[in-house]
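Many introductory courses stop at the sequence. We go one step further.
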Amino acid sequence: MNASHALTDAYLAALKLMEARGPRPLHAAAEFAADDFDTSSVQTGDPELCGHLRSVGANDPLRIQLHLSVAGWDAAQPTASWTQHTEAGSEKRRAVIIDRLRVDEKTSQLFLELFPIAERGRPTVITSAEHWVPWYTEGLASDRGFYWGHYRNYLIEKGWSAEDIANSLGPATTRVVERLADPTADKPYRSKGLVIGYVQSGKTANFTGVIAKAVDVGYRLVIVLTGTTDKLRSQTQRRLDMEFAGVDSVLGGIDPADEYALDDVDYQQDKEWVAGRFIDHGQIPAGARIPEVHRLTRHHQDYQSGAIRALDFHGTDPTKPLYHPDNVFPEAVRLAVVKKNSGVLKRVINDLKKVHSRLPGIPALIIDDESDQASINTNRKRWFEEEAERTAINAAISELLKMLPRAQYVGYTATPFANVFIDPGDPHSLFPKDFLVSLDRPNGYMGASDFNDDDSSTDREEKTFENSPEKCHVRFLPGRKDDDSKLGEALDAFVLSGAVKLFREGTGMDAFKHHTMLVHEAQKKTVHRDQAENIKRHWRRAGYSSAKSYERLRNLYLRDIAPASSAMFTDLPIPAGFDELKPYIAEAVALIEQTGQPVLVVNSDKIEGEELDFDSSPVWRILIGGNMLARGFTVEGLTVTYYRRAARTADTLMQMGRWFGFRKNYRDLVRLYIPKGLHETFAGICQDEEFFRNQLDKYAKMDDDGQPLITPQRIVPLVAQHSSVKPTAANKRWCAILEQDATDVKEPSSAYPPLDEKAKLRDNVEAFRPIFAGMSGPHPAPQVSKSLTIFQADFSHGLIVKILDKLSWLDEEKFQADLRWLKTLKPSQVDRWHVVMPQLLDAATAIPLLNFGPFSLHSRNDIEKRLQAKSQPIHHQLLHEVVRAPGSRTAGMLLYPMIAKPDEETLRFDSTRIVMAFRLELPSAAKPKDGRVLKYRVDSSL
């Protein structure tokens, strides 16, 4: 053993000693561990450790483990004794860690350089204070971490960074597992929770990690409920087989050298299996009380009746209950990946009934992927009403939970509103009564902000590839559905992006296994067939096999692909010019046409012509589909999307956003072709969901008595609808009523009356007459912009409340919770309001209002007679100097008279339809003394 290996082994052993009890003197522990090695003495200390870390790469085993350990300590809950109650992820926490490790200043700085304190990745957790007893300690996780350790190492070998695992996946999975009930506790408890991720953001990786950790500590029946299609169930089964269950579980005792017996084993044609890329847990040590994993479902086989023997748990010591550690730890794990189908679920239930006497002792974990789909009871009758029945799938899941007193239910979704609208008073519902975990946006993820420009103050003419994600990635389609004039360009972009991928492979980058384009315009199969024929015609006319297409492709490359890539990712190789790319175009076309047809239709779980299989072979195709390619299913290699399909609810529309996800080494090539109105609807929905996540983060705190500021039972989704699309279907909305809202920033941008209600709009303008009359200006505002001018004045709190009380809204409940709180404020909290009206440069936009002014009219998009009436972020600082000053009792208002954007042909605007939009900011003195920011009246059976 050379010196470097000996040092690595010594420090790895030292870190292993610290897993259960937190950081300890590092060099002393390494020296102690080195004494057990059969080698010459190992030099340990700051110079030796720093020298090693500086000489190795990011994949060095010691560097990886140090990163995992330090980041884990950074993220540890303040309840751990060694943390000295310092906040997780803080500089104070890191100082405690360094002090306990007893490393010098140079080592400390190197740790900070190589293992920075994570600014993101720690999930937001909303919990109930009842029934939960902390049990998932660092010591337990360390002592029983077989499957989690193997999964973590597998991900690192697969290309995950130690930073992402240590700062994101590790803490996030721990936050979920610690909220489950202790599987070995004498008293059973059934916990229900919800994990909120982003569309195609790695939720499967999270629940795989949760399963691994839960199995390590004693959960022995794991049921994963997938979507409603066989394709999605098979995709999930393969992921769990590949990354958790492993080779021995798939083989099921069959000798891998027995070719005849292998015919009945999954994945024999799977290239990843053949290449040895499925996790291999190796030989489990005898007596280690580490369970085997028995699969109850297979890659292309859902749960079948008759698996009763596999479900029959026995235990090794009949004198002790099944959940006792002596019985549960050696017991094999049963894993079932089940489609959400009432018939399949009934088969599971019927088999469990045959071993009913053992069910009270079985620690079970039910993972519900896409939990807002099919799982929720949409029967409009209350659960306690006579003749009330649950919908079939919800009834089956509820029965599973009732049969298994030790079952834990964890839902996963990217669109959570349907889940939190469930009646919390229904004892058998799937309401997440115990916890909600909101996952942070992961590194490398392309989400809403990559397809929308947040700051609307930049004119379209001023947008560049450097300052506009929208300009980089979004191409607007004509409004008419039968106008396919942009389809040819989309196909050209698909070919060019494929050629760029091949060029990058030629520079030494990893191969791009898949390259796909998705066309999603409608749900009906007949439309899909017509679309396929139309695309084939466009493909033939494009002439990609001929040099005649090169001039057209050159034009698109030079005005779109090349400048966007250069502006976004200077570290990714791009051809110096089109001529350097040209040799790869024919190769890309050949790959797309390799099956004879560039187009593949996929719909309703029935695949026309051939199988879509991302697992067994590369896919370079144009995919046409509807629901099959809309929710849950990952379209691998997706680069160009041609999308026209609208939907009535926000959650359905968001789940169709397959262009969200991870696009390693080709995110600069991603293009979304979409109608402008539909894109604006998506932007509003994304803003609403991000607002909800921000609200969860805001209230994920404890009050002075150690009680949660908000619990799952009292969550009201503060949905700021910026379009007419509802958050979820009407039969899923069981919404609590917000009684009082004491948040310090208020912008009711989706609550104003529609443009066709002229009387309400006119009355609202009249309500602001005292403001117009008292305004002073225009004055320059150089602190914001050299060209900006403003009107401004101060008014009494009573006058502002009186004005707000007169306003008409979209419906009678809008803004009322905010207004009820504002009326309670005393002069010691708010004694005056500073009101600012930002003005536009163009004098033609200014008109007198009620004979005062003139004041600028700000134009906004009109979607179905409602304005997207949002303030401009650059104006917010106009209030900050006054409102945020220490000891301030001054509140602020940004006031915008708004109109719909002028007609593009006549440039005329309608000054009779003015929306009085505003943004309010309250000083810190206005905060409630009891810390209760939200107060509720819950419309439920509680």
